[in-house]
Design the sequence.
């Protein structure tokens, strides 16, 4: 497979207040974000040239930074404008947007009170996270060995870079064994989420989803819950043990990258994408592609 490195591409990146050539958006190797994971980020999608739920994403970016103890030196409105300028500069209509904020290189120690806070926003054309064939057939998942930490052990309410290390480890192991993704349990052994998406289970016509008390309450997750309520589906947020997969008929993931993606198997448990999953897939696809004014009101 041919890979185009992300540091060697044509285009423009918004970096600390200005648009710079893609290859010129660099950081020093001795920056605190790299060594101590003092970085936060967002993953966003643009449809028809508009960033879906942009305000919610940038509010969460600012909140995540605050949880990690630093303040991004730009307002939400400024970040909104910067993200849209990146789309325009790169002529992206349907794509992926990645804002990232991190501590700089002024201090190289655990303490980092005097580091400068940087913000960059990049965007690129990006197809569906899973191929259309895999999405319609449902993906295969493996339960991960790593578990989501307790809120008292990590800043679980933030979208912090360091929290994704165990996601990479889990996804790599799952892929090496022929699966598409990994299902992560939490510190109590309850079902939590996939490596980069929230999870829903359909049991006897009702939708069940884990209570997000040690992982992110995803923006797409909340959106799909609203769509389910509009359809009259009952959505129950609760603790879910992995043994319940044995009497679950449908499973699907939600997230900026995966959108709404059916799951065909988790370890030895099998599921068939049914009416509820397909309906919410259709409703979400319709929502993100409708005119911006309508999407804002939805």
Sequence:
């Amino acid at each position: 497979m041919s890979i185009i490195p992300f540091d060697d591409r044509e285009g423009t990146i918004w970096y600390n207040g200005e648009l710079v050539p893609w290859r010129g958006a660099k950081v020093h190797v001795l920056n605190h974000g790299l060594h101590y994971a003092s970085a936060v980020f967002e993953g966003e999608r643009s449809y028809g040239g508009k960033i879906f739920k942009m305000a919610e994403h940038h509010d969460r970016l600012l909140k995540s930074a605050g949880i990690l103890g630093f303040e991004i030196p730009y307002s939400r409105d400024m970040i909104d404008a910067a993200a849209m300028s990146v789309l325009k500069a790169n002529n992206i209509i349907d794509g992926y947007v990645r804002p990232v904020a991190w501590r700089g290189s002024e201090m190289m120690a655990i303490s980092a009170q005097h580091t400068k806070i940087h913000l960059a926003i990049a965007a690129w054309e990006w197809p569906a996270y899973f191929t259309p064939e895999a999405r319609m057939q449902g993906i295969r998942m493996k339960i991960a060995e790593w578990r989501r930490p307790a809120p008292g052990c990590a800043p679980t309410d933030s979208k912090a870079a360091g929290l994704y290390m165990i996601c990479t480890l889990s996804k790599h192991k799952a892929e090496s064994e022929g699966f598409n993704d990994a299902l992560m349990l939490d510190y109590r052994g309850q079902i939590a989420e996939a490596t980069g998406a929230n999870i829903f289970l359909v049991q006897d016509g009702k939708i069940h989803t884990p209570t997000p008390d040690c992982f992110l309450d995803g923006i797409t997750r909340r959106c799909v819950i609203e769509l389910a309520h509009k359809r009259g589906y009952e959505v129950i947020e609760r603790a879910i043990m992995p043994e319940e997969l044995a009497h679950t008929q449908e499973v699907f993931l939600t997230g900026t990258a995966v959108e709404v993606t059916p799951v065909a198997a988790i370890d030895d448990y099998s599921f068939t994408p049914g009416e509820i999953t397909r309906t919410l897939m259709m409703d979400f696809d319709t929502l993100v592609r409708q005119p911006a004014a309508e999407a804002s009101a939805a």
User: Anything to note?
Assistant: The longest strand covers residues 139-148. Residues 156 and 214 are 5 Å apart (CA to CA). The chain has a mean pLDDT of 94.
